[in-house]
Design a protein that fits this description.
Blueprint: E1 3-7, E2 12-17, E3 22-26, H1 40-62, E4 66-78, E5 86-98, H2 102-116, H3 118-125, E6 129-138
Parallel strand pairs: 5-6
Antiparallel strand pairs: 1-2, 2-3, 4-5
Helix pairs in contact: 1-2
Length: 165
């Protein structure tokens, strides 16, 4: 795996992954940044979220769960002193689908946390406390009345689910 970082002046950079995909990186305004890109530590959270959400969706799909959308909402705490490393990270999954079994969601999260998500496992080995929880939101079919499933859930219609890219 390879990546390249190009300096674009001030505190702005472009990161290019080995796949050729690029991401804009910028520092905060108080350090001369212009809010023209993602902060480096936020990129780490995005990497963790992408890694673990990918695994959760794949595990659920292989388990024949009808997942229509999945989002990982990530919050983090950092040390007060330099280096301001992450000390705690919490990942809240929102799984939208039809008849999704909460036990299977919990199993998928457990598997990604302890076996599959390299980013999560690497951060934990570095001393970061990572926790997870989830909610399942039922997205009823056109013939089935809406119902809530899971914790803190709300019923969605198919029109509420963003299109796949």
């Amino acid at each position: 795996m390879r990546a390249t970082i190009h300096w674009n002046g001030k505190v702005r950079f472009t990161g290019v992954a080995g796949s050729g995909h690029a991401v804009a990186i910028d520092g905060p305004p108080e350090m001369g940044g212009e809010n023209a890109g993602v902060r480096p530590m936020a990129l780490m959270l995005l990497g963790l979220g992408g890694c673990t959400a990918f695994d959760v969706v794949e595990i659920l799909r292989k388990g024949r769960q009808r997942v229509l959308d999945c989002r990982a909402e990530i919050s983090a705490e950092r040390a007060e002193d330099e280096p301001k490393v992450f000390t705690r990270i919490h990942v809240h999954f929102v799984v939208v689908g039809e008849g999704v079994d909460e036990r299977r969601v919990q199993r998928a999260i457990d598997l990604t946390a302890r076996k599959y998500c390299s980013a999560s496992i690497m951060l934990e080995r570095g001393g970061v406390a990572i926790s997870h929880d989830f909610e399942v939101q039922e997205c009823p079919s056109a013939t089935e009345p809406g119902r809530n499933v899971g914790r803190r859930s709300q019923a969605l219609t198919p029109a509420d689910v963003p299109p796949k890219a």
